[in-house]
Structure formats: C-alpha cells, structure tokens
Amino acid sequence: MIRFDSVKKLFRRHPVLDGVTLDIATGERIALIGSNGAGKTTLIRCLLGEYTFDGEVLVDGESPRKQRASVLGKIGFVPQLPPPLKMPVGQLVTFAAAVCNSDPKRIETIGTRLGLNIDELRNRPFNRLSGGMKQKLLIAIALGRDVKVLVLDEPAANLDPEARHIFFSLLAERIENTSMIISSHRLDEVAQLVNRVIEMDMGMVVLDDRVADDSNLAAMLNTKLRLHRADDAIARALSEWSFTDVGEGMEWHGLVAGPDRLRFLGMLSRYVGLLKAIDMVELDPGVTLQ
Ligand SMILES: Nc1ncnc2c1ncn2[C@@H]1O[C@H](COP(=O)(O)OP(=O)(O)OP(=O)(O)O)[C@@H](O)[C@H]1O
C-alpha cells in the first residue's frame, strides 16, 4: 500500500531522513515513534508530497509528488499543529468536504460524536477554537470520508478521556481496510492502537517490530479503585477521567477506554502510595454500564 524506498531528505546539507526503506500494507497500524527531531514529521511530509526528496515514495503505486491530487485523495491527515485558519467552522467543513469529495454532513456527524456542537460553532473562526476543539474538527475532517491511509500526528494529545474513547472507536471502525500511521513521542500513548512499531532516530529506522494486537480498540474497562484515604489531588485527577466518588473520596468507579489503560495507569502511578486496591475488568463487547 505504501512504499518508502531509500528516502533521503537534506535540510541545509544536513540529512534529516537518511535512507528510509519501509513497506506498509493495508490493515497495518504503525506507531511511528522517536524523540524530538528524529524525522517523523519529515517522513510524513514526504508521504504527503510536500517536500522534494531522493529515493521513492509510492502510495497505492502512485507518487505523492507526481500524482499529488490522487494521492491526497487517498490519505486522511491530522496534523500535529493545527493550521492558523481564520475561516469559520461551517465554511471550513463545507470547503474540506468539497476538496475531499465528501459530504459535510458526514464530517459534522463525526464532529458531533466527538462532542463538538457544530451548530453553535458554525460562525466561529477556526483559530478561535480551543486546542481540543481544533483537534476534534481536524479528526472529523480526516475521518469524514473514505480513505485508504490515515496519517495521525500526535492525534489524541489534546483530547479528554471521553473524546479519546470515541476517537479510538472511530479508528476501530476503519481497521479492516485502512493503513494507519500514528506518530507520537511516547509509545505508551499509542501502543494499544497499533500492530507494528517503527522507531526513528536521526533520520533512520532503528526498530521495526510487529506487536500483538488482540486488544479491541473499542473496549472499555470497568475500573474500581480503593484508596487509603481521601485526597484532593487524586480526586481532581479521577474527576478528569469522569470517575465517580462512591465512598467519601476513598472509593472510585469509572470506565477507561481499552487503548488508554497505560495512560490511566501512568496517571495513577503519581499517587501510588494512596492506592489500596485496583480492579480493571474489560467489559464484554456491547455491554454498557448504567
Ligand atoms: N523546514 C525545515 N527546515 C530546516 N530543518 C528542518 C525543517 N523541518 C524539520 N527540520 C529539522 O529536521 C529534523 C527532523 O525534524 P522532524 O520535525 O521531522 O522531527 P520529528 O521526529 O517529527 O520531531 P518532533 O517529535 O519534535 O515533532 C530536526 O532536526 C528539524 O530541526
């Protein structure tokens, strides 16, 4: 589906991509990880045809430089930094749908699922939205059409846990017939979304591993915590995860999205001395708690 063959990119004579060769098949979900400056965004920009480079990139047999419109028609892209657009939200949705040959309603439906009130935002300039709202809208635009490749650059960084769960479910709906490249600094943010991990360092691929992917992206974990004592800081953190206090600040219940379990445990590790018991049980598909 996607082929990078000996891709080299120099900036001011300095190699930023130093001979990257990769084949990515349909159905593969890649975590593209690496420290700041490793070359992840540059690789993505080459895939999108934004840069010239040495070597070859092909998407479904087509070159992003020579057949740019056709290649971009196959790729849904959520950038790391939202573009500084002043266009009102309603106009942006209509414009994006027209460019991508999609239906604005489809984009709006996904935006609504992610928690955006599109009608309320319709006349608001895009650059006046909060970081999370911008990200939700960019995700809705990328997912609001049929694509063969999804490229997501730190896509869930600004989303609250509820929106993250919906985002994971939206990805789960696309799993069969899409290749995904999800770029992140942190493997624990994306580990459970993917079945292959590619790590870059100094413009080179330094690790390329298949990983088990039996975790269901749409799974939910019924989670119960008991604490030694009530504490304001952990109470605030758990409230951000929409947990309910069922025992005077010492017992908390809530739901954690399956792919977010490491992130949740990472948050809990800050309060490890307060924890008396943790119980996390994956709900059977289709089961919802009242
Ligand atoms: N337009 C540019 N002009 C000059 N140098 C650039 C340009 N874009 C990126 N670089 C340099 O290329 C290197 C790789 O940058 P890139 O943005 O691809 O890394 P990254 O892995 O995406 O990092 P991050 O995780 O910080 O986003 C860095 O040293 C960066 O300074």
From TrEMBL:
<dbReference type="GO" id="GO:0016887">
    <property type="term" value="F:ATP hydrolysis activity"/>
</dbReference>
<dbReference type="InterPro" id="IPR003439">
    <property type="entry name" value="ABC_transporter-like_ATP-bd"/>
</dbReference>
<dbReference type="Pfam" id="PF00005">
    <property type="entry name" value="ABC_tran"/>
</dbReference>
<keyword id="KW-0067">ATP-binding</keyword>
<feature type="domain" description="ABC transporter">
    <location>
        <begin position="2"/>
        <end position="227"/>
    </location>
</feature>
<dbReference type="InterPro" id="IPR050763">
    <property type="entry name" value="ABC_transporter_ATP-binding"/>
</dbReference>
<dbReference type="InterPro" id="IPR003593">
    <property type="entry name" value="AAA+_ATPase"/>
</dbReference>
<keyword id="KW-0813">Transport</keyword>
<dbReference type="InterPro" id="IPR017871">
    <property type="entry name" value="ABC_transporter-like_CS"/>
</dbReference>
<dbReference type="InterPro" id="IPR027417">
    <property type="entry name" value="P-loop_NTPase"/>
</dbReference>
<keyword id="KW-0472">Membrane</keyword>
<keyword id="KW-0547">Nucleotide-binding</keyword>
<keyword id="KW-0536">Nodulation</keyword>
<protein>
    <submittedName>
        <fullName>ABC transporter ATP-binding protein</fullName>
    </submittedName>
</protein>
<dbReference type="GO" id="GO:0005524">
    <property type="term" value="F:ATP binding"/>
</dbReference>
<keyword id="KW-1003">Cell membrane</keyword>
<comment type="similarity">
    <text>Belongs to the ABC transporter superfamily.</text>
</comment>
